[in-house]
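Working notes for the structural subgroup meeting. M.R. asked for a predicted model of this chain before we commit to crystallization trials. I am recording the input and output together here so anyone reviewing the notebook later can reproduce the run.

Input as submitted:
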Amino acid sequence: MEYTDESFDKKDFTCEPLQKGTYENCIFRHCNFSSSDLSSVRFIDCAFNACNLSLARLDKTVFRDVQFKGCKMVGLHFEQCDPFGLSFGFEGGQLDQSSFYRNKLKKTIFKGIQLRETDFTECDLTNAVFDHCDLAGATFENTILEKADLRTSFNYSIDPERNKVKKAKFSLQGLPGLLNKYDIEIQ
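Returned structure, recorded in token form:
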């Protein structure tokens, strides 16, 4: 089924599951997808505003040019999504304990979002922007952060020897997050 230019407001998809199909240019507002199965659903040019997607199943889910604003998205496994054309942006809300393992996220914008204990292992975050993000406990391992901007973000721990950080931007206040492994005191 195809759905185009539709709005879904305050729908509880935990009671009545979202129909499988393609959703293009649709808006989801205050919807509950918690623990829902969104496998093989295609979202193209869609917006999710103040929705709960925590623990939703994302096997082969398509996200192309999708925006998430003020959403709760705890424990999502974006590495299970269809990688072809994967592109989204995040503003506000919570994206804790999620995984982007091996995703190509070039130019992705994370703005004012909580990313605690989120896994970015082996991701390509070239030119990504982390604007005022809380990255406490986030994992960066063999991650490409070239030209990424983390100047306003905080609580990160990134080992420059285990990640590609050429021309990445960090603030002076973020310097301790690049030197954690040396167990030195910076004042």
